[in-house]
Amino acid sequence: MVAGPVAPGTGWPGDPATAATPVADSAEQVRELASGAASLPELTARQSVCRACPRLVAWREEVAAVRRKSFAAERYWGRPIAGWGDPAPSVLIVGLAPAAHGGNRTGRIFTGDRSGDFLFASLYRCGLAVQPGSVRAGDGQRLIGARMVAAVKCAPPENKPTPGERDTCAPWLEAELRMVAGSLRSIVVLGGFAWQALWPVLAGASFTLPRRRPAFGHGAEVELTGPGGTPVLLIGCYHPSQQNTFTGRVTGEMTDAVFTRARDYRG
Fold first, then answer.
1. CA–CA separation, 75 vs 52, rounded Å?
2. Which of 26, 32, 135, 148 is 20 to 30 A from 260 (CA-CA)?
3. What is the pTM of this model?
4. Residue 2 binned pLDDT confidence (cut-offs 50, 70, 90)
């Protein structure tokens, strides 16, 4: 079994990049390549090969080489996780970062871990996914009118990216928001870190924001104005981490209520 990250364009299901995809090696190059992407597929390809944050690159590749014992026979993706789903979504789902043995292993955010099991089950019940679960890229899962993105594209040590890593990664999300803004009706933000990370990105993507930034909370709502002048509802949702789901801090019914609200806003 080959260890280490998957080389672009070598046949991994859903790999958006090729060997010719340009690679960002610094925060300045992230800004240049994000703003210069001519299409959503080009943008996601560039996201998936970024090497701008040395600590994150080292960690994600170490995890992909060493691997967890339960996945020792599997190849790990070991690269940044690009946005995926509907290219013209009405609902955008924003998470923090991929899990070391979830998205960093499978190549798709919330795929192949317990948080994803919980999340996809809710999306399926709410008509936003075609299957109630997703274990690997290429398993037939497809989002319906929805798209998933991460505020930070690489798996961070202890699930804690630094403020500098968050800010370096922000232009990728800002560019993606600009590209999908025309179809957006709602944005669901999973967890407080993603909520805080998203506000400056929204401003940079020409969304009109309230004068005061509301506090994060499950079911918290803020009506924004998109770049085209249409209303976009921002909704907070507790992150479907095992800690939250096992303790009952967030339940399936609570998550379903958020996604139903997001799905039906301006529907």
1. 23
2. 135
3. 0.97
4. low
